[in-house]
């Protein structure tokens, strides 16, 4: 019968499922028991190890017997890894010595040649966390491992260990695009920190542009001023990627010597470079760049304009002044972007607060700036402020301002306040509405008069 | 030949075809289950040294724009946004797109996150329905809310893309909550193979019944509603067996739009989300496959089994029917739009395996199942149903199906073990048996009905009533 094999197959499968269900029950029960035992062991050995580490350096005997240290290796090395994370220099050296004296260093270095890739990766990770300099050579060799997970773990381990040898290995890895993802090597180099600066500067002359670009990026992330000159030189690189990263890194370094060079970069033929230059100038915060950034707001590329506007906002008061000037620009985008940036950076709120100021000069300055907003039909900041503010004097000042400068949109906003709980606000709102009405009638009247004259 | 004899013969032959169909379908599921199991075991081994902590501290970890389209989500939107804003990730922005909601979605957001309207200028790369207003939060720097006219989910996502500023974007449903580490886990393949990976998706799990606090699931429980329980089993099977298996074959055909991460440049290259389909997420993935295969590029689309996205599923048959109808209609639309990929060697495994599977088993399957059940009932009524045959049908269609569902639950319990209580595990096992006696048949009927609605071409958000996430009792 042809059905028989099917029935047998399904019966076997049912049996397997039942066995698995039983296994699940056993797993759940044993997990709880094992967890409790593991927790007890961890507490026990942690106390032991912490006591040992707090003693004088001269004590050389490990706090455990050899049999114990081998039997409970996963637990003990876990404790050492945890302690290492929050240890200072001397404590770290003590932990490393203990790790070595327990035979774990030897075990993990040898384990890097284990046929199982999971074992190799696990050992690389532990060696990295213990920051064992003695493992650098083997970890460097393991950067050629056929398994990607092992290579990645070795990169991180070398980054954590640092030092000349490790940095050299990482710099070489950054140029090996077949085996390593450049961004991940760059991360490890960033972790290595200041020690990697010199070799990274040399990499700015590497033959391939990907290496040069990542070297430029990491130099910016590390933020060491020794890289300044090399990064300025990299601005002349043929590759757009390298120029973009070098420009961004100069911004991150925050060295004002870069200002003139970055202003020149605003004329680069490639928009990603110009866009990075605008952002970098914002990071330098030199008011002298404001006029060039304002010009960059009319750049043909959207991202350059957006970054230039943001850079001006980052500059503080001088940038705000430049943005206010851009509100009356002929370029519609620049006008709108300036308005948006001024709202987002809180400048508009500042002007509204100034409206009720006793200082006449301040009030006038705020009035002039806000007038442009009202003319552009940007009412939302006024509405928001009126809704949020509890200050009667200020609300009256804003309503009066809208009455003097606003149009139909402002009319709608003010209408909400003719029934306000505060008499002063109601009165100001009525007057403001009247003002807008009068202007409207005058405009219509003028128009009719003009039409009559023409006819 | 006598007509009645001829008819009987036809029914007997058809019954055999039905058995072969169920056997093939469930065997395919079994293969996917084993592939999925292998992939999950491998994933778990690698996860222990994936370097998440390292990536979280790195400045080279790619920033992400999270896009959340929302339509009448006033009950769940605040919890969802809170959950997103507290994600553990170095740099991200959250963009909520209120797609012309008729309820108070915008108001509740405005109150909770102190929104402020701004006149923002943006790069208009994809044409969408008009944007009515743009709001920034005065208390959360990385939150942006876009209020636009109703245009559907795809249109809302496209509007979000116009405002996004990062190279990767993640679409998340407004009725969903991501786990703390979800983003860093789903982005990991992009960090390891930046030139190859173009999209990745995480697992969607049922939040009904779970306790939620501050936008986080703090206690995982099975739902109290029976329809939601059936779906909990369904989701486990679909994700842990189905998608993990397809991902292992590098033939992932669907990534759930409830939680998916994409490379923005690739999506922009194909013109963003299509608005003429009801399941823009499925269409987008198939479109990416097609585009990149035609370009001859090497790429990967992956499913990652442990970044979890918790979602609220329908608790009434009416809502479930609406949802499944929309999903199936979307599948028909997608497969029809890309029919040239079917059995076309140019599209590799996608054209030769995934596409035929989805075409014959997922799209036409419900029709065949409904016909099969009907004919078996007819044969029983006509007295021509052999008892041996019925037993075999029961084994192949029902018992085999039960085992697959139990298998998925076991994978969950051996690997993720999210359900702590035995009562929840047994409940899931019970529902995996019960779903084969009524629920599955009703779903087949609902999905078959979608062929009719497909021809009517009715489009809507397919919205389901929300109850809001249950806060943990004090």
Kindly describe this structure.
With 455 residues, chain A is mainly α. Chain A is 75% helix and 0% strand. Chain A has helices at 3-54, 66-71, 73-85, 89-101, 104-111, 117-130, 136-142, 148-161, 164-174, 182-192, 197-203, 209-222, 228-234, 240-253, 259-265, 271-284, 290-296, 302-314, 317-326, 332-344, 347-355, 360-375, 380-388, 392-405, 408-415, 423-454. In chain A, helix 14 packs parallel to helix 16 and helix 18 packs parallel to helix 20 (332-344). Chain A starts with a helix and ends with a helix. The model of chain A has no long low-confidence stretch (mean pLDDT 84). With 474 residues, chain B is α/β, with parallel strands linked by helices. Chain B contains 14 helices and 12 strands. In chain B, helix 1 crosses helix 7 (226-248) and helix 10 (317-337) packs across helix 14. The radius of gyration of chain B is 23 Å and the shape is globular. Chain A binds chain B through residues 3, 6-7, 10, 13-14, 17, 20-21, 24, 27-28, 118, 121-122, 124-125, 148-149, 152-153, 156, 181, 183-184, 186-187, 190-191, 217, 221, 302-303, 306, 333, 336-337, 339-340, 343-344, 378, 380-381, 383-384, and chain B through 23, 30, 45-46, 48-49, 51, 54, 58-60, 116-121, 123, 133, 136, 191-194, 388, 392, 395-396, 399-400, 403, 406-407, 410, 413-414, 422, 425, 429.
Please specify the SSE layout and strand pairing.
The complex is a heterodimer of chains A (455) and B (474).
Chain A: H1 3-54, H2 66-71, H3 73-85, H4 89-101, H5 104-111, H6 117-130, H7 136-142, H8 148-161, H9 164-174, H10 182-192, H11 197-203, H12 209-222, H13 228-234, H14 240-253, H15 259-265, H16 271-284, H17 290-296, H18 302-314, H19 317-326, H20 332-344, H21 347-355, H22 360-375, H23 380-388, H24 392-405, H25 408-415, H26 423-454
Helix pairs in contact in A: 1-3, 3-4, 5-6, 6-8, 7-8, 8-9, 8-10, 9-10, 10-12, 11-12, 12-14, 13-14, 14-16, 15-16, 16-18, 17-18, 18-19, 18-20, 19-20, 21-22, 24-26, 25-26
Chain B: H1 3-47, H2 52-57, E1 64-70, H3 77-85, E2 92-99, H4 105-113, E3 115-118, E4 131-137, E5 143-148, H5 153-163, E6 168-172, E7 176-178, H6 182-192, E8 197-206, E9 211-213, E10 216-219, H7 226-248, E11 259-263, H8 264-269, H9 280-295, E12 300-311, H10 317-337, H11 348-363, H12 365-381, H13 387-415, H14 422-456
Parallel strand pairs in B: 1-2, 1-6, 2-5, 8-12
Antiparallel strand pairs in B: 3-4, 4-5, 6-11, 7-12, 8-11, 9-10
Helix pairs in contact in B: 1-7, 1-12, 1-13, 7-13, 7-14, 9-10, 10-11, 10-14, 12-14, 13-14
């Amino acid at each position: 019968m042809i059905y028989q094999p099917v029935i047998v197959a399904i019966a076997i499968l049912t049996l397997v499922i039942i066995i698995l269900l039983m296994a699940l029950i056993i797993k759940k029960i044993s997990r709880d028991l094992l967890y409790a035992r593991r927790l007890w062991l961890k507490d026990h050995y942690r106390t032991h190890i912490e006591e040992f580490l707090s003693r004088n350096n001269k004590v050389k005997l490990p706090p455990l017997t050899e049999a114990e240290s081998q039997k409970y290796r996963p637990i003990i090395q876990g404790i050492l890894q945890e302690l290492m994370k929050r240890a200072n220099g001397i404590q770290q050296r003590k932990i490393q010595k203990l790790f070595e004296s327990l035979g774990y260093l030897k075990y993990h270095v040898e384990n890097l040649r284990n046929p199982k890739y999971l074992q190799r990766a696990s050992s690389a990770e532990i060696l990295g966390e213990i920051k064992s300099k003695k493992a650098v050579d083997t970890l460097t060799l393991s950067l050629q491992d056929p398994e990607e997970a092992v290579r990645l773990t070795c990169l991180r381990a070398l980054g954590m260990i640092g030092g000349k040898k490790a940095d050299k290995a990482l710099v070489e890895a950054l140029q090996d695009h077949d085996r390593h993802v450049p961004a991940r090597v760059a991360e490890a180099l960033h972790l290595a920190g200041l020690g990697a600066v010199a070799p990274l500067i040399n990499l700015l002359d590497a033959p391939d542009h990907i290496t040069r670009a990542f070297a430029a990026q990491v130099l910016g992330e590390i933020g060491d001023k020794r890289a300044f000159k090399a990064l300025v030189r990299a601005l002349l690189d043929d590759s757009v990627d390298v120029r973009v990263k070098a420009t961004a890194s100069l911004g991150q370094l925050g060295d004002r010597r870069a200002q003139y060079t970055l202003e020149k970069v605003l004329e680069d033929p490639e928009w990603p470079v110009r866009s990075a230059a605008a952002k970098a100038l914002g990071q330098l915060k030199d008011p002298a760049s404001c006029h060039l950034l304002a010009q960059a707001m009319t750049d043909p590329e959207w991202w350059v304009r957006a970054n230039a506007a943001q850079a001006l906002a980052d500059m503080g008061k001088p940038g705000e002044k430049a943005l206010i000037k851009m509100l009356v620009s002929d370029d519609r985008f620049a006008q709108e972007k300036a308005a948006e940036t001024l709202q987002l950076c809180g400048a508009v709120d500042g002007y509204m607060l100034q409206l009720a100021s006793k200082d006449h000069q301040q009030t006038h300055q705020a009035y002039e700036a806000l007038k442009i907003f009202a003319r552009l039909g940007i009412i939302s900041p006024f509405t928001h402020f009126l809704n949020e503010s509890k200050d009667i004097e200020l609300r009256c000042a804003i309503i009066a301002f809208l009455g003097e400068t606003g149009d139909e949109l402002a009319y709608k906003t003010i209408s909400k306040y003719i029934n306000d709980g505060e008499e002063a606000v109601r009165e100001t709102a009525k007057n403001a509405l009247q003002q807008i009405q009068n202007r409207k009638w005058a405009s219509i009247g003028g128009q009719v008069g003009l039409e009559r004259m023409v006819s | 030949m006598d007509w009645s004899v001829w008819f009987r013969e036809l029914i007997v032959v058809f019954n055999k075809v039905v058995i072969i169909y169920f056997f093939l379908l469930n065997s395919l599921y079994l293969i996917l289950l084993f592939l999925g199991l292998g992939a999950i075991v491998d994933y778990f081994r690698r996860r222990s040294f994936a370097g998440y902590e390292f990536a979280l501290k790195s400045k080279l970890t790619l920033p992400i724009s999270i896009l959340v389209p929302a339509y009448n989500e006033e009950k769940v939107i605040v919890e969802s946004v809170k959950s997103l804003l507290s994600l553990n990730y170095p740099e991200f922005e959250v963009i909520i797109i209120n797609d012309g909601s008729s309820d108070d979605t915008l108001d509740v957001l405005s109150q909770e996150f102190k929104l402020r309207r701004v006149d923002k200028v943006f790069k208009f790369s994809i044409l969408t329905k008009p944007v009515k207003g743009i709001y920034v939060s005065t208390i959360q720097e990385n939150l942006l809310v876009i209020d636009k006219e109703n245009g559907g989910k795809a249109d809302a996502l496209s509007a979000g893309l116009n405002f996004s500023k990062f190279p990767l974007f993640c679409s998340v449903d407004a009725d969903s909550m991501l786990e703390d580490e979800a983003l860093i886990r789903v982005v990991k393949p992009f960090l390891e193979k930046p030139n190859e990976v173009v999209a990745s998706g995480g697992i969607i799990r049922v939040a009904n019944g779970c306790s939620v606090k501050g936008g986080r699931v703090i206690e995982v429980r099975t739902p109290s509603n029976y329809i939601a329980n059936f779906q909990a089993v369904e989701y486990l099977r679909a994700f842990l067996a189905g998608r993990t298996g397809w991902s292992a074959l590098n033939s992932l055909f669907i990534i759930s739009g409830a939680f998916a991460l994409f490379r923005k440049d690739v999506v922009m290259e194909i013109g963003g989300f299509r608005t003429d389909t009801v399941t823009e997420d499925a269409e987008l993935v198939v479109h990416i496959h097609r585009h990149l295969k035609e370009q001859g590029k090497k790429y990967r689309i992956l499913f990652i089994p442990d970044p979890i996205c918790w979602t609220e599923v329908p608790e009434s048959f009416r809502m479930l029917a609406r949802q499944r109808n929309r999903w199936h209609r979307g599948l028909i639309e997608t497969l029809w739009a890309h029919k040239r990929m079917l059995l076309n060697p140019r599209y590799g495994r996608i054209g030769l395996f995934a596409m035929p599977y989805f075409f014959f088993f997922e799209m036409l399957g419900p029709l065949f199942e409904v016909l099969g059940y009907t004919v078996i009932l007819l044969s029983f009524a006509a007295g021509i149903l052999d008892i041996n045959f019925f037993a075999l049908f029961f084994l192949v269609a029902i018992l085999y199906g039960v085992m697959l569902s139990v298998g998925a639950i076991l994978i969950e319990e051996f690997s993720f073990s999210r359900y702590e209580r035995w009562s929840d595990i047994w409940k899931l096992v019970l529902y995996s048996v019960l779903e084969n006696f009524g629920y599955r048949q009703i779903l087949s009927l609902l999905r078959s009905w979608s062929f009719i609605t497909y021809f009517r071409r009715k489009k809507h958000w397919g919205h389901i009533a929300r109850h809001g996430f249950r806060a943990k009792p004090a």
